[in-house]
Amino acid sequence: MNKITKLNTDDILTKDAHLIQSFADLDGLKQVASRTAIVAAKGAYVTDSEGNDLIDGIGGLWCVNVGHGHTEIIAAITEQLKTLDYYSTFYNFTHPAAARLAEKITQLAPGNLNRVYFANSGSVANDTAIRMLHHYNNRLGRPNKKKILSRIGAYHGSTHLAMAMTTPAYSEGWDTAAENLVHHLRAPYAYREADGMTDAEFLDVLAEDMLGAIHNIGAENIATFIAEPIMGAGGILVAPDGYHKRMRQITQDHDIKYISDEVVTAFGRLGHMFASKDVFGIEPDIITTAKGLTSGYQPLSATIISDEIYDVISEPGAMFYHGMTYSGHPAAAAAALANIEVLESNKIPENVRTTGKIFENALRGLTDLDIVGEVRGSHFMMGIEFVKDKATKEAYSDEINVGLRVAQEAQKRGLIARPLGNILILSPTLIMDEKQIAQIEVILRESIKAVTAEL
Ligand SMILES: Cc1ncc(COP(=O)(O)O)c(C=O)c1O
């Protein structure tokens, strides 16, 4: 890769003082040294402005599923822009790339999810799902059936509504538009909440929590339950076996729609194109997805809805008052089509069933380290929780910044990982081979030991 000079780093970071980063400690970022400029990427690696090649252990932001720099995807975007740079999907207009992609996605999606609305982010995909369901209930003459069941620990995005559905922890000091609209159920956080229970007992507790909420709020007031198949940004929380099936049954029994937020889990991360049915055995009413849909080469999200919902919102006299200028943008649709072709022709989801398991097991091996309380997750979606005392699970205080310190040590050794309080998240590209996986394990082991020695 090109050698990048120090001069460039200073230049980039000086200009960067005008950029507001996402989910960042903006005060901390005023120190130039705390920022990293990524200037190039290829395969499973990125290069920083100092010329260091780093394993992209977070796949961009759990999105670069097929790896960086795929020439087929870049060529497809370029060709599309040469032919049709932009046209909207407003009113009666459409274009071939959006039409082909809509058909393809609905072929891949489970059950009767046969209609798709495109937007440019997972946040807007989730907002779209809620707007559609509210409109659906209005059309059915049920104007009160609007409340949303979400979960503590959830992450559904950063628009006002998506953030209201996200875990309340992220709203400290911020307002959310829809506080009274959303009820947060208990998190399926077995390590901290199951308290000696078996998986089955913990599942009963979680199901009772949902039933209790439905009883208190009234099913006639609840539009939907929204859930990530595995909670990502909440700390990689894997629900007990059978959780999604049980929750699906409860929602069906109470005429509550089930939204599966597959912004992270779709397109191969758990070894299948969609995880809802193939991994967790459920057919939701709506799946939202983004990230791996284009592997990050273009911004694109999809809200995929059932025929039953579509039939109601497309009745004679109904008007779909919802639209984004860039919904189904030709370049983004072309990127997604090429990306899905790469996933299919290289059998990436199938390979993940093997390599992802190797990755999972390699990371689980770190449990022998003194400060590793739990390693959890599935395939290429993993989290490591650090604790002060393994027996009591006593957590490190926030000021210790244990996750950040391990991430900094890992970066020094050639790996980008994402800190989240006392947790370190790994969600690399899905093309990692055994050698790279072994390298990640070694780097993490050394980094955790280095931080342990300092503590
Ligand atoms: C499960 C989940 N839903 C929604 C979102 C929001 O997606 P976006 O950042 O594209 O708005 C994210 C982002 O990380 C996510 O992890």
Gyration radius, in Å:
22 Å
Average pLDDT, to the nearest integer? Answer: 96
Q: What structural class do the secondary elements suggest? A: alpha/beta
The CATH homologous superfamily of the largest domain is named Type I PLP-dependent aspartate aminotransferase-like (Major domain)
Strand order of the largest sheet: 4-10-9-8-7-5-6
CATH class of the largest domain: Alpha Beta
CATH architecture assignment name of the largest domain: 3-Layer(aba) Sandwich
Overall body shape: globular
**How many H/I helices?**
15
Cofactors and ligands:
pyridoxal-5'-phosphate
Count of distinct structural domains: 2
Total count of strands: 15
* Beta-strand residue percentage: 15-25%
Poorly predicted runs: none
For the biggest sheet, the summary is: 7 strands, mixed
Helix content: 25-40%
The CATH topology of the largest domain, please? Aspartate Aminotransferase, domain 2
Give the SSE order as H and E letters.
HEEEHHHEHEHEHHEHEHEEHHHEEHEEEH
Distance between the termini: 37 Å
